[in-house]
Each structure stands twice: as C-alpha cells, then as structure tokens.
Amino acid sequence: MENDITELLKKRVYLFLIGLLLIVFCASFILLHQRGGSNEFMLSNARLVYEQSDLQAANTSIVQELHIAEGDHVTAGMLLVTVQSVFSDEELARLQKNVELAQRNVEQIRYGAAAVSQNPPASSEGLDAARMRMERMNELYEMGAVSAAKRNEAAAAYEQEKNALTMGSGQMAVPNAAALKAAEEQLKKAEETLAKARDHAGTTGLFAVREGVVSKIHVKKGDLIDSGASILTLDLVENCWIEAEISVEDMNRVYPGQIVRYELSGLPAEATVEEITDSDTEPEDKKNVRISVPHDRITGHEENITLHFLP
Predict the structure, then answer these.
(1) Domain housing 298
(2) pLDDT single digits (tens) 99-119
C-alpha cells in the first residue's frame, strides 16, 4: 500500500515539473516575441529630400534659350540657360571708367621710370655739406653737446642728399615687364567688356556646376531678369536623404545606425538611420529621422515611402 502511494507521488511530481517547464518555456517565448516585435515597426510618411542650389543671374539679362525642363537630370558642365547681357547707362559709365583707370595704370608703369630720369641732377655741393654736418653732429654727440635725435636727423639728411644725387645721375630706369604685361591685359579685358556692352551682342551660357535634378524653373524665354535673380533651382543628387516624422513615443524604437528597408521606384533598397533631429513643424512632440539613400537609386521626387525599421 505504501509503495503504491510513493509511486503516485513520484508521478505527480514529475508531471508538476514537466508542466512548470512548459509554462516557463511558453512565457519566455511570448516575452521574447513581444520584445522583438516592439522594435519592428513601419512608417509610411517618408519622402525624398534634397539639398538645393539656385542658379542666379550675374547681371541684368534677357533669357535667350532654356535648354532644360523641370524634372530633367543634369550633370556638371551641362548647358542650362543662354542669356544676353543688358547694360544700363550707369553700368556703361562704370565700364568706361574701368577702361580709363586701366589706361592710366599702363601709362604710369610705362612712363613712370622715364619721368624719374628727367629730374635735374642734384648738386654734389649739397651732398658735401650734408656729409660735413653729419660728421660734425657725430663729434658733438660724442662730447655730449647734442642729443641722439639731432645726430640721427643729420644722418638722414645726408642719406637723402645721396639718394637724390643717384636718382639724377642720368641712368634710365626700366619699367617692370611683368607688371606692364599684367596692366596691358587688364586694359584689353576692360575694353572688350565695354565694347560687348555697347553693342548688346554678347550672349553667355550658364552651366551646371554640380549634378542634380531641375526642380523649378523661375523664368521663361524672353524674360528680362535683374542681377541676382533666381533662374532655376537644382536638387543636388550628391546630397539627398529620406526624411520621416516620428512621434516621441516611438523614439525608443529608432537609433543612429539602425538598418532600414524601403522601396524607391519599385526597387528594394537598404540603408541606415543617419540622424535624429527636432521637427520644424507643429506639434513639438515630433522628431525627424534622416535615412541615407544610395545614389544609384535616386530617380526623382517620391513621397509616402514606407520604411521598415529592423530591430
């Protein structure tokens, strides 16, 4: 009888332990599943964002030709717009003044040395007198009769007389060849700019400096545009990212370097979280998440991109 009770208790203990292990296993599975799923979530409000660059008019111009359209992909060095410069009377007067200044500069360099050589020679008698005075001042300074300032003044006067005699000795000074060439080139450029402005025949091509997508054209053919006016806006491909807005409650699910999967133009892509910043829009309990974009996947402007954040 006692053996039967012992065997029954053993069976019940075994069953209890097995049941306890099953409960622990199931609880652990549920907790792990919930923990893993807490970081796996999606956002569908993401969009492509570009750094933008404006092409501006260097001076008052007329748009002659637009070589691109909105949405076009352009590369560095591509011709975008052809414009014709238009100059006002004030601008023409300024260009004429530039020519006159350039001419004066050339004349000063070319004839300045010759003008120096035409100065009358200085008298050697003045030099002798200055030397004798300097020697006398040195003797008096040694005796303590005059100050150092008086001695230095006499020495400076002697050097001045000596330099004047050298300059007037009849030697012809030669102008600086490099300075003269640079001044002549400046004059030529000023004259060409003035001539082009007077006949209004000068057209200029404006080229893309960086690769990008034309997002907005602000002018049309025949428009008169002022200096500094924006002609078009370019979205720079080299600095593009995906941006999404996320609530503060979900911030614990996102971290820099986190892997994110999404689709662009129907093709799958994978990137990482680059930056988390404050949102510029209301409400203030929002954050902006910036995600990198492979350059070979950029095709234009896309919105409502679905992001899959991996744990």
Answers:
(1) 41-51+238-309
(2) 898 898 888 888 765 554 455
